[in-house]
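not sure who needs this but someone in the group chat was asking about DNA-directed RNA polymerase subunit from Friedmanniomyces simplex so here u go. i didnt clean anything up, its just raw.
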Amino acid sequence: MTDDQRLHSHSPFVHKTETFYLALSPCANEFPLEGLVAEHISPLLLTYYPPLRGVILKYSNARLSETPYEQGSGESGNGVVLSKAVDEYAVTFVYLTVDLVVFAPTKGSWLEGFVNLQNESLLGLVCYNYFNAAIERHRLPKDWRWVEDGSQGSTRVGKGSQGYWVDGNGQKMDGRVVFRVKDFEAAPGSESGAGSLNTLGTLLSVAEEKKLDEAERQRSVGVDRRK
């Protein structure tokens, strides 16, 4: 299977239709749709949203309703929609449904990135001009090697040295890399709840990755026993 076939086998970009039950501020009563989108949806763009397990990239087709949206219900969204007032609260409540594009990689899926950082410990990548990914040294192919600048192909590794990785054919790794997702971590953001997504990748085969995981578990068990 080619790299392009791997990428198309499972796209990390997911289209979702989601409904939110939101509070409508009194200042937005005259323009409720625009007010809800500006207050609740726009701040989520390019941030990790835990309920969707991904980063929201785009929204469209926002519409209001008095009940949760149901696929195939045939609601046109052109009728009068009433929001719900509760006791003495100044705000009222209404359902907002939007179509979303979410970046939601999963373990075992394939991504592409371009090299933007190299050191002896890892290969750093930028995916789709925004997302960061890293492939640790022990998850690079066994025939790759680290070359120090000025060493003319020497495999000697020096502490704090500058250099680059070369593949099994001796080609410098400084362009596109297609890799499999090993794991990912959502990093917390500001008080608004925004966050980013950091991806850990691997270039090992499934069998090699399984063997490495087992070795790491054995080392962890050995450390715990010595304690």
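also Residues 206-226 form the longest helix (21 residues). if thats useful
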